[in-house]
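Crash report, auto-generated. Payload:
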Amino acid sequence: MNAGLPSAADAEALRTRLDQEGESAGYYLNPDLEFARSLTSGLLVNEGRYGYRACPCRLASGDAARDRDTVCPCDYRDADLLAWGSCFCGLYVSAEIREGKTSLASVPERRPPAAERTMAPNAPRLGRALCLPVWRCRVCGYLCARQHPPAACPICKATSDRFEAFA
Amino acid sequence: MEAIGRVPGRVVGSHRTKFYGLSTCVWCRKARQLLEELGAEFDFVYVDLVEGEDREAVLAELARLGRGETFPTVVIDGADCIVGFKPDEIRRALAS
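Recovered output after restart:
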């Protein structure tokens, strides 16, 4: 499992891309470039190991379905940004931290223990007379009414497997 | 990066310290760096770099501590369990 580290250029390229994508949707990357690059490097290590960008600060199982809630951006990012001003690993931060008004601190883990985790339901439960199923992005809460979830969330760019049936 | 090992430290007769971390985690890097700066002797394990039965054994150790699978976890003298990068708590525990 001791694969080679990604190059500094690759880590920086991913950091830049996530920074641009985030900016357009109201998310901010950690302004500490070295810190952020260290995290994007960790994301690339995990992508090489598992095939997906599992959170570098959480232990991945290697089972895509079990790790899905921790694939960056994780299901817990927005709640942690609101509560602590940064996500669990510190890649994403609030505007206050970005502007240096408050500083980054250790964020407690809000991911439930394995036994209490629920998988995203993937079939809509149409209780009422809706003309289309409603899908919810588990990362940012974006809702859309359509036959299938979009390939990527237009707000936070999470992939279609991060959508759950909402109504 | 070595998955399991021991840093000899500079402080003689000090605490028995164990560091659990992930090789990809920036907070774990900071915690280990602090332990080294403080001259602590410590055993370390990067849980993402151990596999199979070895990983199960480490996870069982963490389960016994009852503080979840969160990294870094620094255990001092088998009792003081510091979860997350909390430099003041680490300094305090090692100074006592």
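Post-recovery validation: The first helix of chain A runs from residue 8 to 25.
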